[in-house]
Design the sequence.
């Protein structure tokens, strides 16, 4: 597939404008459910991904961590999904983009609400809560923050349910009552099933339960294997092979007038374990200077400066990170559209005074304050094709 020209450039030195911004409005995860719901006649929904034909019954199967590039590189482990590559994005054979940061909490909120990150406000793995000044982990929802205040937009599932369509989520029982599910993926009915096979069977039955249906199901283990062992490890390839069988199982059970879309929340990059590729914030006085809080994750950092130091932190980070990261001030990142064409006032100050997005296979780790995250092999978050491009495979009945 020929990639857009913006992804092929390799500017030196890196400028904020050179970052390959996701395809908000026409080809991002935030556009998927509104497109499907519009085709089902749900009021207020817009079909941003114009390549997709309407269907009465729509199922989205989200495979955590399965990027477009990783899928294309492993045809032997994923023969069924590989056979569907030409169907991606409505038969164009193209991927869609995750959104920035390319991380699970952000992407799941984009999928479920149909809003860009700057609107739903889940702007990374961790961000500063402007009301408390403390870091908020948006995946684990720690410390507790009232979900409806943090993310007030209704999900597409809720809107579809209100419009008379059958809306359902089929996932692990552990996710049923989590705040992230509440703000991103709630609406209609939640069905907890432990095994992937049971989820596929139930998702197919949920599709058949109504003339108009919007069903979501999920598989997490590809992402977990990538973080622990790396993309292309035996463990990762084994998980890919397993989920390929799940996709086939679901596809073979689709009721009439259905469309199945297989996508992901982000891709992944393996980062070597050495000082050249893993810059340790906790041991680098230059990166620490003037920084009160470090948010985000290794490839998509939010740096919150002490009062009056934002300009100095920006200059220092640009000098230290050189051509390996796109480094922007808050205003520059917003104006460049990194978080989408709109950033709601309530979420603006969740963005770091400085935002750094990796271009190369590098990380800003924090070995003392983030020991578990700093030990991960596979990582994601930035705007490179390996992280941003995700499949949108299609099967219709």
Sequence:
């Amino acid at each position: 597939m020929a990639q857009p020209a913006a992804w092929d450039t390799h500017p030196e030195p890196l400028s904020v404008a050179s970052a390959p911004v996701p395809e908000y409005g026409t080809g991002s995860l935030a556009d998927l459910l509104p497109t499907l719901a519009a085709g089902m006649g749900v009021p207020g929904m817009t079909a941003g991904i114009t390549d997709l034909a309407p269907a009465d019954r729509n199922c989205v199967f989200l495979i955590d961590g399965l990027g477009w590039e990783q899928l294309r590189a492993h045809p032997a482990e994923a023969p069924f999904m590989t056979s569907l590559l030409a169907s991606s994005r409505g038969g164009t054979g193209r991927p869609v983009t995750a959104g920035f940061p390319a991380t699970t909490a952000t992407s799941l909120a984009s999928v479920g609400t149909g809003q860009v990150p700057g609107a739903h406000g889940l702007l990374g793995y961790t961000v500063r809560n402007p009301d408390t000044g403390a870091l908020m982990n948006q995946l684990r929802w720690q410390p507790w923050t009232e979900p409806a205040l943090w993310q007030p937009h209704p999900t597409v599932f809720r809107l579809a349910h209100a419009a008379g369509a059958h809306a359902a989520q089929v996932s692990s029982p552990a996710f049923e009552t989590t705040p992230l599910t509440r703000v991103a993926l709630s609406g209609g009915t939640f069905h907890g099933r432990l095994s992937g096979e049971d989820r596929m069977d139930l998702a197919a039955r949920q599709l058949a339960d109504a003339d108009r249906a919007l069903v979501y199901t999920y598989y997490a283990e590809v992402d977990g294997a990538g973080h622990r062992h790396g993309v292309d490890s035996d463990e990762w390839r084994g998980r890919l092979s397993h989920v390929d069988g799940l996709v086939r199982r679901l596809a073979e059970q689709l009721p009439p007038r259905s469309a199945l879309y297989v996508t992901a929340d982000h891709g992944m990059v393996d980062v070597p374990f050495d000082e050249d590729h893993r810059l340790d914030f906790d041991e680098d006085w230059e990166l620490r200077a003037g920084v009160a809080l470090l948010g985000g994750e290794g490839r998509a950092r939010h740096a919150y400066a002490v009062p009056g130091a934002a300009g100095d932190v920006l200059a220092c980070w640009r000098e230290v990170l050189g051509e390996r990261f796109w480094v922007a001030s808050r205003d520059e990142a917003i104006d460049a559209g990194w978080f989408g064409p709109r950033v709601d006032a309530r979420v603006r100050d969740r963005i770091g005074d400085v935002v750094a997005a990796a271009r190369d296979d590098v990380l800003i780790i924090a070995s003392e304050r983030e020991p578990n995250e700093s030990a991960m092999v596979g990582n994601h978050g930035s705007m490179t094709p390996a992280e941003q491009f995700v499949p949108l495979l299609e099967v219709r009945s």
